Structures are given as structure tokens and as C-alpha cells.
Amino acid sequence: MQFDKELDARGLNCPLPIIKTKKALNDLGSGQVLRVTSTDSGSLKDMEAFAKQTGNELLSSAQDGGDYVFFLKKK
Question: Which CATH number is 5-73's, of 3.30.110.40, 1.10.3720.10, 3.40.30.10, 3.20.20.70?
């Protein structure tokens, strides 16, 4: 999937992946896509909740080995 910006949040624990995701999305324009990689297993539910609360679209979430990879589209 194509993306406009990438955030490496590996090694960070809750709530830091979400905080850094919010900051990274603020730097993007409407319709742009952010790729987030995290090692925090809690980020699966956190990203879903974050997307619903903020109105940004969670395009996909997947586990790749020990990493969790998310694609979010800014509203």
C-alpha cells in the first residue's frame, strides 16, 4: 500500500504509539496516508479506537512477525 509518511513506533509502550501517531497525522494533509509500525500488542485495539474517535480512517492493520503495521488515512 502506498503511504505519504512513515512512523516507527517500535519499542514504545502505550500510550506513546498513539500520541506519536496523532502528532504525525497533524503533519499530513487531508487524504494522505500514514504507515505506523509498532511492537505494542495493545496498539491493535488502540489504533481502532483512535481512528473511531478522531474520524481518521484505519485502512488496514496487520501483524508482521513481532510488528503490528497500520495504515491510517487522514480525514
Answer: 3.30.110.40
